[in-house]
Design a protein that fits this description.
Structural class: alpha+beta
Order of helices and strands: HEEHEEHHEHEHEEHEHEEHEHH
Bound molecules: adenosine-5'-triphosphate, zinc ion, magnesium ion
Distance between the termini: 39 Å
Oligomer: single chain
Strand content: 15-25%
Keywords: Ligase
Helix content: 40-55%
Protein name: Amino acid--[acyl-carrier-protein] ligase
InterPro entries: aa-tRNA-synth_II/BPL/LPL
Number of helices: 11
Largest sheet: 7 strands, mixed
GO molecular function: ligase activity
CATH architecture of the largest domain: 2-Layer Sandwich
Radius of gyration: 21 Å
Organism: Azospirillum palustre
């Protein structure tokens, strides 16, 4: 399939999802409302993740889908992914500027001139608020830390692919500790991820992946990430069999975040980190793709896994 065919397939599948009512269009590519049926699947999958990961004793943290701008600046996200970041701006002018804003609005001109950056930015990945939070607590306990997060995430990647949204939800487990602890966690979840998604009877594949680092220097970073096998994705066909969609990802950051935020192990070494991320909308879309739009008609075995 060439790019034109892939795009046509994505567009056609998005139309089907909208017609079925599962996705509610808003007029912006990648920004959708969801029906009750869709949300039910998301909730059941979230509960399934807890069933597989809940016994490990993770500390639960829930953050709003925005990040302290200072944390965002410290994260070096702007070095790697300036094209994806979403910053929150608000009106900062006086009455004169307000009058000019209203005039420009009325005349259909750009009215955003007096919008200024606030102290918050959109969360790009659910784990970002965790690292500075853990860093503030001081050195890690001997067994390290395991955190459970769930958040809406924003990425400026408008697309007609219904599986590439601008606002989507990510459940994550994050492991922070020694290299051994962190690598063991990622191995465990690579196996669990396969078994868990296998129980939902969808075709899947696990493969090495890379993040879309920006610019020419970014290509080098992407290549090195692949060579070192730092990122794996669990892929399921949604709009294309040849280009399946990443529904889960398994990321080893080595000591990158440990360095940035000065996170230390009990022995005083710089901590390593890893996370496993579950793309809630993508998993739901994969299930609708393979089992149909009517959840009552899904295989009994799959219904049992999700609804008990
Ligand atoms: P892709 O390669 O498809 O862009 P990604 O590498 O950016 O995916 P991660 O950054 O690892 O994905 O994010 C963790 C999970 O969040 C992914 O495995 C995926 O399920 C989900 N996800 C990422 N981007 C999107 C998006 N734009 N819309 C919906 N879900 C997404
Ligand atoms: Zn993460
Ligand atoms: Mg991406």
């Amino acid at each position: 399939m060439n790019m034109v065919d892939i795009t046509a397939a994505q567009s056609a599948y998005r139309d089907e999802l909208v017609e079925s009512g599962l996705l509610i269009p808003t007029g912006v590519d990648g920004l959708y409302g969801r029906s009750g049926v869709f949300e039910d699947v998301v909730e059941r999958f979230d509960a399934l993740v807890t069933r597989w990961g809940g016994q490990d004793g993770a500390e639960v943290m829930r953050f709003p889908p925005a990040l302290n701008r200072q944390y965002f600046e410290e994260s070096e996200y702007l070095k790697s992914f300036p094209h994806l970041a979403g910053t929150i701006h608000s009106f900062g002018g006086d009455e004169k500027a307000h009058r000019s804003l209203l005039r420009r609005l009325e005349e259909g001109q750009d009215w955003t001139e007096d919008q200024v950056a606030t102290d918050v930015v959109m969360t790009p990945a659910a784990c970002y608020p965790v690292y500075p939070t853990i860093a503030r607590r001081g050195p890690l306990p001997g067994e390290g830390k395991l955190i459970d997060v769930f958040s809406y995430c924003f990425r400026h990647e408008p697309s007609i692919d219904p599986a590439r949204m601008q606002l989507f939800r990510m459940r994550e487990y994050i492991r922070i500790g020694t290299p051994d602890q962190v690598v063991e966690f990622r191995e465990l979840w690579l196996e669990r991820g396969r078994a868990m998604m296998g129980s939902l009877e969808v075709p899947l594949d696990v493969d090495v992946a890379n993040d879309p680092f920006f610019g020419r220097a970014g290509t080098m970073l992407s290549n090195s990430q692949r060579e070192q096998k730092l990122k794996f994705e669990l892929l399921i066909p949604i709009t294309s069999t040849e280009k399946p969609t990443a529904c889960l990802s398994f990321n080893y950051h080595q000591d990158h975040f440990g360095h940035l935020w000065d996170i230390h192990t009990a022995d005083g070494d710089v901590a390593h980190t890893a996370c496993v991320g579950f793309g809630m909308e993508r998993v739901a879309l994969a299930l609708f793709r393979h089992h149909g739009f009517d959840t009552a008609q899904w295989p009994a075995s799959v219904r049992k896994v999700l609804w008990g």
